Model the fold of this input.
Amino acid sequence: MARKFSMDRRAYLKTVGAAGTTAAVAGCLGNGGNGNGNGNGNGNGNGDGNGNGNGNGDGDDVIVPGTASGFPPFEYTQDGELVGFDVDLAEEAITRAGYEVGDWVDIEFDSLIPSLTGGDIDLVAAAMTITDERSEQIAFSNPYYEANQSVLVSSEGDFAPEGESDLEGRVVGAQSGTTGAAEAERLIEEGVVDGDDYRQYDNYTLAVEDLENGNVDAIIIDVPVANNFADSRSVEVAFVIETGEEYGLGMRQDDDRIGDINDALAEIREDGTYEDLVAEYFE
Ligand code: ARG
Done:
């Protein structure tokens, strides 16, 4: 079942890829053009969703998703193709909500919120934690996943910290703009880690490589992703920092299609699709 799901998505991506290659912004505009024809008549098929009933012809029926890959199993590339739990979940939610999935935009995590508010993308699916600070800039869907932070170290070396204080005098890294980076910054503020010993990475794949090479002693990263890296690389989780985070899909604050997305997410949970995705990507 789960397998069929991902094959469908791959087939779908191929179709999209064949139709309108790369340039996501261009893709968005192109699709917007075709939205022109039916912007008013898109009563979007699932009865209760009239959030986009005001179709003003500027492509309201297409949702362009954005992510930051290198964060397995949520978003990563496999044989040059963007895949992952978030990719499948977002495509399923967009489709069920009655919209068309635009071409994925894969950029740095730091750039997601500016790209969303600037209109280059319409939806962020990037294991993004719902925080007060981010909620001032964008709207979040209802939560779809829970996670804590972890401290990841090399499994080859002899550094085995048991708690935050063991990070004293060590080089610590995280991906820029993440909640993991916020934890690292807290440790600097608290005087545990020296500001000079803090490494910020564009993505966590680079951070894990540095961990394996011994260029950094520890990285702070979401637990489910740490576990995934631990399965395939020479790294292991040393301890967990209980942050109690919840991931949400991000949309612009004035985009009322988020109601349809929330309804779709609820349906995805109720009918077992969510569990299938968890089984496919986490077990
Ligand atoms: N959950 C963390 C945050 O919101 C990390 C997310 C990183 N996501 C990614 N696709 N690289 O900050």
Notes: The radius of gyration is 20 Å.
